[in-house]
Amino acid sequence: MTTIAVVLAGGTGQRVGSPLPKQLIEVGGRPILAHAIEAFDGCRPIDQILVVMAAGHLPAATRIAAPFPKVRAVIEGGASRSESTLAALAALAGEPDDTRVLLHDAARPFVDHAIIGRCLDALGRYDAVAVGLPSSDTIVAVEDDLVTGMPARQTLRRFQTPQGFRLGTVRRAYELAMADPDFTATDDCGVVHRYLPDVPIRLVEGSERNLKITHPLDIVLAEHIAGELAKDLPDRLPGKEDAHDL
Ligand SMILES: Nc1ccn([C@@H]2O[C@H](COP(=O)(O)OP(=O)(O)OP(=O)(O)O)[C@@H](O)[C@H]2O)c(=O)n1
Ligand SMILES: C[C@](O)(CO)[C@H](O)COP(=O)(O)O
Q1: In this structure, is residue 241 part of a structural domain?
Q2: Nearest ligand, measured from the Cα of 184
Q3: How many CB atoms lie within 10 A of CB 7?
Q4: Which residue numbers mark the site Positions MEP for the nucleophilic attack (predicted)?
Q5: Can you give the residue range of the structural domain that contains 69?
Q6: How many domains is the chain built from?
């Protein structure tokens, strides 16, 4: 059984506001995209990596991906995150349904081997796996600037990535989604939850370091984290990850 990581880098980073897609910005002396690819490339149970890049930037992504032996292809993404996932699913059309696939935001450069290992452990028992953390803010629902709901905070989690699936499950969910004219989604577990509601989604713990670089301030935070991780480098070398020979 093959395990494939998909690094979704098809966005253009409008909220960061840089002229280049944010995944090409350097933190800790290397592009954000390189950090994300390296996290999977250095993780023993990952067999292959598929990089999905924003249109017009494939040469840059191909150069960044070149040193990583597990990268099987760099392909062009779509106009939305979901369309980039669909491009990945099309590229994986020849893979069997039981393939394990981890869909990860390139904008989360500090995903670590422990998180990847927890996802893969859980994929041994579940067809869909999410990574999450509790919220330290109170989260409310709003409509037209009026508060319409206040879910109890202890029932809420902030989703991170990777999100892990048996390929057949995420494939089927997207097939159903494509038949829905009202389809919208902000993540892949949301697609499985909506279109295959009987499929349980197992939640595993993420980390505060696994932040998504979204706004300019996140770049500052990312530089700081990269500096901290550089000091811990010996702990991140291959063989030091949580042992997950799955
Ligand atoms: N068409 C898209 C849009 C997003 N993504 C990826 O999905 C992840 C999360 O998206 P987000 O943080 O929203 O990235 P951007 O779309 O680049 O940012 P923005 O919404 O600010 O433009 C990122 O790694 C991004 O590259 C993608 O693969 N294809
Ligand atoms: C997938 C995700 O990172 C989970 O928190 C998030 O939904 C991506 O949202 P974005 O607006 O595409 O950054």
Answers
A1: no
A2: 2
A3: 32
A4: 153, 212
A5: 3-236
A6: 1
Half-sphere exposure of 201 (CA within 13 A, CB side): 22
Question: Is ipTM > 0.95 here?
Answer: yes
Bridge partners (DSSP) listed for residue 106? none
Residue owning the nearest CA to atom 13 of ligand 2: 214
Q: Which of 6, 7, 12, 23 to mutate to test the pocket of ligand 1 (most atoms within 8 A of CB)?
A: 12
Q: What is the CATH number of the domain that holds 185?
A: 3.90.550.10
Question: What's the pLDDT tens digit per position in 145-176?
Answer: 999 999 999 999 999 999 999 999 999 999 99
pTM of the predicted model, to two decimals? 0.95
Q: Is residue 245 a part of any domain in this protein? A: no
Cα–Cα dist 61/75, whole Å: 9
In a domain, 134, yes or no: yes
Alpha helix (H) residue ranges in 44-147: 58-65, 81-91, 113-123
